[in-house]
Amino acid sequence: MKKGLLGFLLVCAIGLTGCATHIAQPTSAPMAAKVKLGTFTKVELSKCVISDKLRGSNESAIKKIDENLLKDISGALQNVSQVAEPKNFTAGSGTLQIIPEIKDIKFIGGAARFMVGAMAGSSAVLISLTCKDAATGDVVAQGEFYKSGNAYSGSWSIGVSDNMMLDDVAREIGNYLSANR
């Protein structure tokens, strides 16, 4: 009888704690742009750079971040085009090159949320953004951006809050670029 109760309490404790997500938030705010980003006549946005180690099960999240970044950056700056990767950038004066790099990500999809709920842990993403002047190669703006989706709200919403984090991080980047326009 006591073993059964102890086992039940252990399962409840595990269920209440969930799996930890160990993605560190940035320690400093993004730098103010060295030049007004609105002075560039053309903007080239690379799709997210990410290591193969992180790519695996995060493909749908990465695709959504790329879509959201294009939408939000196009709202912040003019003449934005997207390229597959930084090596596809073109050189030229008046061009701003934007490179988002996913430094770390843990995305819990709706199916996992439905099956195991909060025990799947929190979702989180850390993106490093670098903006370069194509003519000189100088970094004109950069920063790190972090967003997370809470395990419990993800569980209650069956993954909606996890997906909202993908929108939120792109919106924060768009707001940063707009503020430095």
Q: Can you summarize this structure?
A:
With 181 residues, this protein is of the alpha/beta class.
Topology:
Blueprint: H1 2-17, E1 42-46, E2 49-50, H2 52-55, H3 59-76, E3 80-83, E4 95-106, H4 110-116, E5 123-133, E6 139-149, H5 151-156, H6 160-179
Parallel strand pairs: 1-3, 1-4, 2-4
Antiparallel strand pairs: 4-5, 5-6
Helix pairs in contact: 3-6
The second-level CATH architecture is 3-Layer(aba) Sandwich
Global outline: elongated
CATH fold-level topology: Rossmann fold
Q: Helicity level, as a percent range? A: 25-40%
Rg over C-alpha atoms, rounded to the nearest angstrom: 20 Å
> Proportion of β residues?
15-25%
Q: Given this structure, which CATH class is correct?
A: Alpha Beta
**Largest beta-sheet details:** 6 strands, mixed
Q: What distance lies between the first and last C-alpha atoms, to the nearest angstrom?
A: 67 Å
What is the residue-mean pLDDT, rounded to a whole number?
Answer: 83
Q: How many distinct domains? A: 1
How many individual helices?
6
Estimated structural class = alpha/beta
Order of helices and strands: HEEHHEEHEEHH
Stretches where pLDDT falls below 50 for ≥5 residues? 5-18, 150-159
E-strand count: 6
Describe the model.
There is one protein chain. The chain is α/β, with parallel strands linked by helices. The chain has one domain (23-179): 3-Layer(aba) Sandwich (Rossmann fold), CATH 3.40.50. 39% of the residues lie in helices and 25% in strands. The chain has six helices and six strands, in the order αββααββαββαα. It has helices spanning 2-17, 52-55, 59-76, 110-116, 151-156, 160-179; strands at residues 42-46, 49-50, 80-83, 95-106, 123-133, 139-149. Strands 1, 2, 3, 4, 5 and 6 form a six-stranded mixed beta sheet that branches. Strand 5 and strand 6 form a beta hairpin. Helix 3 (59-76) packs parallel to helix 6 (160-179). The longest helix is centred in the last third of the chain and has 20 residues, at 160-179. The termini are far apart.
